[in-house]
Amino acid sequence: MSLIVQKFGGSSVADAERIRNVARLAMAEQERGNSVVVVVSAMGKTTDRLLALVDEISAHPDSREIDMLLSTGEQQTIALLAMAIHSANGKAISFTGPQVGITTDNSHRKAKIVSINTEKMVRELEAGKVVIVAGFQGMTGDNEITTLGRGGSDTTAVALAAALKADRCDIYTDVKGVYTADPRIVKEARMLKSITYDEMLELASLGSKVLHSRSVEFGKNYNVPIQVRSSFEDVPGTMVIKETEEMEDIVVSGVAYNRGEAKVSIMGVPDKPGIAADVFGRVGEANIVVDMIIQNVGADGRNDISFTVSKDDLQDALELAEKIAKDLGAEKVRSDAEIAKVSVVGVGMKSHAGVAATMFRALAKNNINIEMISTSEIKVSCVIRESDVDRAVQAIHDEFELREGL
Ligand code: ADP
Ligand code: ASP
Ligand code: MG
Predict the structure, then answer these.
(1) Stretch 223-250: mean pLDDT, rounded?
(2) What value does the mean pLDDT take over residues 302-315?
(3) Domain boundaries, the chain
(4) Pocket of ligand 2 (CB under 6 A)
(5) What is the pLDDT of residues 157-203, one digit of tens each?
(6) 3-174 is classed in which CATH architecture?
(7) Measured in angstroms, how far is the CA atom of residue 101 from the centroid of ligand 3?
(8) What is the pTM of this model?
(9) Which amino acid residue places its CA nearest to atom 10 of ligand 1?
(10) CA-CA 20 to 30 A from 222: which of 197, 250, 263, 338?
């Protein structure tokens, strides 16, 4: 007998009929002789709707209260799914994250799971029930409710699979698997039969929201086989696995984009040692994660320092940058929320030259300006105008000839 963790995202549980479909998929897995844990997201666009309400109520909402609110979305789905299974004469029980001992650190809205207590789930699985767990949420050691960041239900699922030593974690979603680019932007994108943890981790961290990046980290660290597959069509999906030798031949496996970043620039900073350490030390202390950094040295003994942060952190980052600028005697602070990042990812880049040049050529041919660049062993990223994203992803996908049939 195997233990399978299934995860269903918002669109897979958007209405009563879809919840009944999930009940059927969970019960079918059980009928094949397996124990089943199901993790679900909030129904449809519930989380977006709750966040829109927050915007209407408050300009500076408290993140503890946001977590209190957002965690209700997933709690609706678990109860409805349990009822759907009961109505189909199955056995099931629903739990919130805190009820199954998902303990996190104290970072509201981007909490990290630190431990999971599997006792209760194991007891219910042994009693033959489908165990249904609310995704995206946990509790601090201090009994405070937290959420894991947008898309975090994937992480709940893979973390539960790791803690329960599950045989597989199936991520059911609204596309058939992981593609060479977002199939909603690039119509000819190709579905991958498999992808390595490392490549998937890069794609996810660079914005491919098909998997939450921390879920891939859990999968990699605990060796959980992850399958991304469709809720609506019974066809094999994409397996996320360890690297194999022949994969080195594939130079680029995918294109990712992220519209969720913004740029902050501190202009006219005095050019002397220790300034960058000071600026980014203070940004780090404020728990703001910085992605790219660029420093332009001016002729007059002053520099411009620009960095990108998540749009969610922009307000905090700006307020902090204003303070830093004042303390350092910098001239002014600017922000730009109209940027986006496009990236190419592939393990084969380690042994193939010219990937960056090919990407720049694709953008140049389409008259798309590059504002920032960063590279690592297996990725190249460029910051561009947000309005250019769709064209850029399509152009890069074409230039690397990633489409179906090649
Ligand atoms: P869920 O609600 O099931 O968690 P998400 O919306 O979070 O679903 O993730 C699935 C979406 O990810 C797809 O609808 C697709 O538009 C997007 N996506 C982005 N990049 C990729 C990619 N490389 N492969 C597949 N889907 C991708
Ligand atoms: N409901 C949460 C979100 O929309 C978590 C998830 O769906 O994974 O971000
Ligand atoms: Mg998701």
Answers:
(1) 87
(2) 93
(3) 3-174
(4) 9-10, 41-42, 47, 73, 135-136, 150-153
(5) 999 999 999 999 999 999 999 999 999 999 999 999 999 999 999 99
(6) 3-Layer(aba) Sandwich (3.40)
(7) 22
(8) 0.92
(9) 210
(10) 250
